[in-house]
Amino acid sequence: MTIKPTIPGSEKSLLKLITNYKRPSLRSSGWQLINTLVPYIALWIAMAYLITISWWLVLPLSIVAAGFTVRLFIIFHDCGHGAFFESKRANDIVGIILGILTFTPYHRWHHAHLIHHRTAGNLDKRGVGDVWTLTVEEYKSRTPFKRFVYRVYRNPFIMFGLGAGLVFLVTNRFTRRGFSWKERISVYVTNLGLAALATGISLLIGFESYLLIQLPTMYFAATAGVFLFYVQHQFPDVHWYRDEEWDYSTVAINGASYLKLPKVLQWFSGNIGFHHIHHLSSKIPNYKLEKCHRENEAFQRVNPVTFLTSMKSLRLRLWDEKRRQLVTYLQAAG
């Protein structure tokens, strides 16, 4: 029997609530590009000047630049969903360019991400575009070495520290078996774009200076981005289902979080905290998500995940099918 959404309303009525928010506004999209790209470029110019004085003056600005990088990634993300412009061509062009700035192959990333949207919260279809999560029984059946590997992967210092940087700086640079030609071309185009951009900037300020600015900026952005992605589907009240119970709107409401952030962080993260609404319809532009939430009482009934709650979520490691919740290793052993 399918478990219904935690907010009142059938799937049809929930989807009806979001109908008026799907159409992008050229004016709003253009303004968001301006208020994100212009400060990002200005910060790069400032850091290029300050690095001639001291790298320690650059470091604080690189954290701010990382915030703008996350915001650029949200626009990139909307383009892949066809939500930022009405024109597919415009979405693809802007998305490919922003993919270079955020070290992410446009078509490759969105292929995996669209699979994620179709399978999020489905215990029988894990493994693409998600955070590796085992059930308690699966974990207990693994060899000691495989349990160790899993523990290393799920360790916050690895996932948000070393792992986040490796994904964007290294993993995204390579193709793998099973990639379509479009995904492969996407990786090659992004790599060529990065090489051209790095060469151009290095000719102006030197390769060492380029690395001293770019690496910390991308590291902080990657860490923030992976953290946001983690708490969107890994939080205390999350619901996951076996395939026979799974349905799209149920998982959107029960399987994606409403991450309530301070306004400044909400701005830098492009409203992606309203993730329950985004999963209900990925066609809603990021700048309309808060409006949709504010104007529909049904969405406000979803319990928010606060910054404090998100910190507690980092201890959750395994899905307990008997309790129907994420648990810690200690709870799983009990």
Descriptive notes:
- There is one protein chain.
- The chain has helices at about 10-15, 25-50, 55-80, 90-100, 105-120, 135-140, 145-155, 155-170, 180-205, 205-235, 250-255, 265-270, 275-280, 285-295, 295-300, 305-315, 330-334; strands at about 135, 320, 325.
- The protein is an all-alpha fold and about 325 residues long.
- The chain contains 17 helices and 3 strands.
- Helix 2 runs antiparallel to helix 3, helix 4 (about 90-100) crosses helix 9 and helix 8 (about 155-170) crosses helix 10.
- The protein has one domain.
The overall number of domains is: 1
Radius of gyration, in angstroms, nearest whole number: 20 Å
Q: Percent of residues in helical segments?
A: 55-70%
Number of strands: 3
What is the makeup of the main sheet? 3 strands, mixed
Mean pLDDT: 93
Q: Cα distance, first to last residue?
A: 29 Å
Specify the structural class: mainly alpha
Low-confidence stretches: 1-5
The percentage of residues in β strands lies in under 5%
**Helix and strand sequence:** HHHHHEHHHHHHHHHHHEEH
The backbone outline, from C-alpha atoms, is globular
Q: How many separate helices?
A: 17
Biggest sheet, strands in spatial order? 1-2-3
